Every structure is written in structure tokens, then in C-alpha cells.
Structure prediction request, 323 residues.
Amino acid sequence: MVRNARVKLKMTTGEKIARLRTTKNMSQEALAIKLDVSRQTIYKWESDEAMPTKANLSELTKILDTTFEYLMNDELEDDVKIKNDTNNNDILPVVVDKPEVVAPVETKPENKQVSYICDRCNKIITDQEDMVRVNSIVTTGHVHSRHHVTVTKTYCKECKKEIDEEIAAQDRARKIVAEAKGKKRRILAIVMACIAFTLAAVIGLSISISSQQYLGILWTFIIASLFSCFVGCMFLYNNIVVTVFLQVAVWGFVKFPGIIFTFDFDGLEFLIVVKILFAILGFMLAALFVTLGIMVGMALSPFVMPFAIRKNIKYPAESWSVI
Prediction:
């Protein structure tokens, strides 16, 4: 005869966890996911190699529908089937099998799919092959305290293609504008060179004829030609003549020292006189070095002028840069 009765059985905490888990048809992996632990941790609990923390036990009571005292008490009082032997009236409990604890199998972690958002169209990008990262330098701060920060932006392939097309269109537009300015610069340089030659020739011829120095006519045309080449190189603004002239001319612009004077009539008179002398000296120095720069530029310009015009025709967009 078999009947139900309540008996006390000895079970460990790990065996209780395993028994309750199996009654709920829950795998070790499923329980591990709910507890946010690894499958190996569940295995160690059920094989009594480790004990759950108080927080884990609290979560286990909710997931397995049990109590904290039940899990921690080694004596388990439960309903089991009791066999009554009619021959000797002994009551024998049916052997209750312990739940089988299965060792976890090492599995490779699954590659979690990471999603990105396009910074241009806000499209969600799930495939990294469709994603393009672009590093750009952004300048922040005021004029006297600028900082350069590298900003990384994420774009989808379609937006990256559109951005590349926009950048290419802007480059083409800038090139067209620069070429137009370069051509205007070339025309202006030729016109100004012709005007400079005419003025220099008229002044030189008038002086030579009035003084009846006919040999000066030859020098007039030579100097007029050199001066016109110098003016043309200066207006082309793409050659070494501009740099040489500016480097020589800047030597004439010097800063004179301060003046110590007494604050009375004689002192103020002395200050005014010295200031006037400094102004005349500064003007003479500036005129001297500007003239010297023009002479050096005139000596170089006949050799530079053909290459400057050729460069402007071939690369009109570079007419604004000084070599």
C-alpha cells in the first residue's frame, strides 16, 4: 500500500536550488540569465562548491517561489510517497532521487550586435560594413585662446557619399573662383606693366631730350623695361620678386627709442625737435630701403616675369600665394 505522508529529508542548499529549478523546467542557463550571473556560478551553487550571496538568495526566493528559511535549513519537510508493507507494518519511504546536476559546457560567447546611429540622417546602422567613421578637427575658443579638438562622427555609406560629393562640389566652386581671380590678376598685371613702362619712358625721354643727352634714350628704355617687369611681378603676386622686395623694404621701418625730457618749456621744445628729426630720419631710411628693394626687384624681374606669367596661365588658382 502506498500513501502520502510528510517526512523530513536532509538536503543541502545546492540540492534545493537544483530541485526547485527542475520542477520549474528551468535550465541552468535560464536561471543564470535571470540572476545576471554565469552558468558556471549556478553549477557551483548546485554542486555545493560555493554559496549564493544574500542578494542572490533574495532573488532566488522570488524566482523559485520559495523562502529564505527553506533554502538555508538543511532539514526539508516535504510531501513524499510512503509505502506501507503489509507483512511487517513497517513504513518505508520511497527513495527520492536527487536532482541531477549537470556541469556546464563551455560555449563561445555570442557576438553581440552593436548598433550605431548616423550623425547626418539618424539612421540606425547594424552592419559595421555600412558604417564610416570620420575624424574632423574643430576649432573652439576665442581669437587669443583657440583650441583644436578632434571630433569623430559616424555616417552611413549613403550619407558619406553625399558628404564627399558636397565637398568635391565646394572644392570645384572654390577652384573656379580662384581661377577667375587669377585670370583677373594676370590681366591687371599686364595692364599695370604697360602703364609703368609708358610713364617711365615718357619721363626718361623728356629728361634726355631736354638735356640733349641722346644716349640716355637707350637707358630710358632699359630702365622702363625693368620697371615694367617689376610692376608686373608685383601684381602677379606669385613669385619671388614680391618676397624679396618686402624683405628688403621692411628693414627701413625701424622703431626709434623713447626720449627722456623735462616737463618744462625747454624740455618740450627738445622733445618736438627730436621727434621731427626722428621722423625725417625714419622717412629717409624707409625711402632708402624701399628704393633698394625696388632696385633688387627690377634686377630680378626680367628673369622671373616669364615664369610668373607661365605659372599664372597654368595654375591661375595659385596666383594669390607668395613663393
Remarks:
- The first helix runs from residue 13 to 23.
- Strands lie at 2-10, 75-84, 91-93, 116-117, 124-125, 131-141, 146-156.
- Confidence is low (pLDDT under 50) at residues 1-7, 79-99, 108-112.
